Amino acid sequence: MKNLAVLFAAFLIFSLPAFAQRGGKPEVGGGHIPSHGPAPYHGPQHTAPPATHEPYATPGARYADKPGHPEAPHVNVKGNKWIGHDTGPDDSHYHLDHPWEHGRFMGGIGKQHVWRLAGGGPNRFWFGGFYFFVAPYDVDFCNGWLWDSDQIVIYEDPDHPGWYLAYNTRLGTYVHVEYLGS
């Protein structure tokens, strides 16, 4: 009887990881790195006056495209679909009078360049000697970021000159960022 109890306990211990992973890979984040940035947006333009700071560029828009997905711009693991990058080039929230005012980021863009955040916060953060800041409109979308340890990937923003997209591999969310120099 004692051997049966030990065998049952061992079975439970070794089956816990299987139960913890029963959902398989996460649908958002979990270390996933998109193979490419978003495509340029070709749909109808969604603009809002620059004086407003609504939580979403389009009134009534929501980012959680499925239950369990974040209420922030994110990338779905399956198909690398960029959710929330759909306001087009005329979105006044991302207009810059002087795009690339501090130069262009030359440190490495895309999935083969994973950077570890080294400090700061949304107003100024850094990695590898490069400095950025998060677009004021996007600050609420990076509340859960770990500014001293998360890994991010920088992608070009095809619709908003002067902006890049910083994608957080742990959370699967992204924000618009401007390069401040090195």
Give the gist of this structure.
The protein is of the alpha+beta class. The protein is 10% helix and 22% strand.
Main pleated-sheet profile: 7 strands, antiparallel
Class derived from helix and strand content: alpha+beta
Average pLDDT reading: 85
Relative helix content: 10-25%
Low-confidence stretches: 15-22, 48-60
State the order of secondary-structure elements, H for helix, E for strand: HEEEEEEEEE
By DSSP, the count of extended strands is 9
Q: Termini distance? A: 68 Å
Beta content: 15-25%
C-alpha-based Rg, rounded: 20 Å
Strand sequence of the main sheet, in spatial order?
3-7-8-9-6-5-4
Write down the oligomeric state.
single chain
Number of discrete helical segments? 1
Please state the overall shape, judged from the principal axes of the Cα atoms: globular
